[in-house]
Amino acid sequence: MVIRLKGAMTNEVYQIKWPTNKERSRKVLVRIYGEGVDVFFDREMEIRTFEFMSKQGQGPRLLGRFSNGRIEEFIRARTLSACDLRDPDISRLIASKLKEFHDLDMPGPKTPMVWDRLHNWLSAAKSMCTVEEAQALRLDAMGKEIETLHKCLAADQRVAFCHNDLQYGNIMIDEDTRSITIIDYEYACYNPFMFDIANHFCEMAADYHTETPHVLEYTKYPGLDERRRFLHVYLTSSSGNQPNYLEIDKLLEEVEKYTLASHLLWGLWGVISEHVNEIDFDYMEYAKQRFQEYWLQKPKILGSIELKDSSILTK
């Protein structure tokens, strides 16, 4: 039996199931790579990450590869739903697991990739768009926006191995043991760990299993108490030390700035995907929503910080 799994937007993912005897069956996951998406990441690096994570007991085993995809172990756990991210108990489990993920010593250069990735994706998006599309999306302004963000965030670049795509479809839970598994490492690389948390918060606005999976509802962005609770669990999960409110709020301020980088990154992803990917998803409308949220939130989050740093940009 072949079942196509919904919610995947970079690849096509299938569950393959066949009987082994009257009472048992076996399942594997088959991932067919999306057309043209190699612009986003290095497939060989992704496979190395996949194998490393498997050896660390962090994810499924790689069972086989073919020219445009691979076969993975099927994890006997449930993929989270959009509403699960708002469940306080599950959110605590995710926060703890994310800290464990960030503490992994993945081999390779430990330099943050988000800024190069933003510039590279912007260049790719510009090369694919018509003049009219680029003007409507304000792509010519994006280079300066990326530099502004980079300058504002340059003082705190605490780097960890990040997943970078922590949406609910990439998180699984074993209902019996309550253990969390983070899967799908296409976009994983070293980055400021605040970016990973910010991106996770932004994903709470999405539900990719509706009739309009591209539509984002930012009223679902986690409230202040939710964000503080997540960060408190994250900071205490490995050390056991209890952070004070000042530490949590300082980290929260940095995380909020990185939501702007998340909006730009995934907005550019949407623009590029519109031109290269055949999956049934309104990538361009998704991109417009991410950019719209960026422009809406930028003055609220940066405020006087951007004005203070403007002198840096003109030197």
Automatic annotation (TrEMBL):
**Pfam families per the record?**
Choline_kinase (PF01633)
- Spell out the CDD domains in the cross-references: ETNK_euk (cd05157)
Gene Ontology CC entries for this record:
cytoplasm
What are the recorded GO MF terms, alphabetically? choline kinase activity; ethanolamine kinase activity
Which domain of life does the UniProt lineage start with?
Eukaryota
Could you provide one GO biological process annotation from this protein's UniProt record? Answer: phosphatidylethanolamine biosynthetic process
Query: What PANTHER family does the record point to?
Result: CHOLINE KINASE 2-RELATED (PTHR22603:SF81), CHOLINE/ETHANOALAMINE KINASE (PTHR22603)
| Family of the protein in this entry | Belongs to the choline/ethanolamine kinase family.
Could you identify this protein by its name? Choline kinase 2
